[in-house]
Amino acid sequence: MTETMHPNQAAPVVAVVPFGSAPLIAAKVIAAHVSGYLNLAVETLPPMDIPPDALDQGRLQHNAASLIQAIEAMPLKDYFKIIALFNVDLFIPLLTHVFGEARQNGRVALVSIFRLETHVDGSSPSSERVLERAAKIGLHELGHLLNLLHCDDDRCLMYFSGGVDTLDRTAFNFCRYCRTALRRALAKPWHP
Length: 192
Ligand SMILES: [Zn+2]
Ligand SMILES: [Zn+2]
Description:
The chain has one domain: 3-Layer(aba) Sandwich (Collagenase (Catalytic Domain)), CATH 3.40.390. Helices cover 32% and strands 16% of the residues.
């Protein structure tokens, strides 16, 4: 990307921000994958407090849309995209829970490791597996921020995973079609 960039154009930087007690190591692993897979500059920021109004008192889960709205309104400097990492249970009204959430072409994506720390049978995965799952979701949600839709190819990171078993079977790669879409999205000029 860098070689085609106009000299006056700001280089896009992605921020990965751990919220509450989300583990910094997971934020760093997501950051490393964003940098490695998409060749983007990435900063991992110090932990921030979870926006207080996003906890749904009835469901005792955090409302993903409210969190995205609150983080979009935060005075974070001009990052290209922001990946916010949580270890609380996230939901959107239509679903019991989500692993992550992002609006198409939006600026803020959420990832939560809350549901990643258990296998479908209730047993505990290794910490490496949890980090791998978090990185897959981080790349998937960043794909949405770059306007990618879900992909029918179950060997692609944009394939929709409703459960950790599907997520584990999903290849750690974007398919050819999604890679082209990513390249196109990242080639567009960006202004802070
Ligand atoms: Zn998705
Ligand atoms: Zn794909």
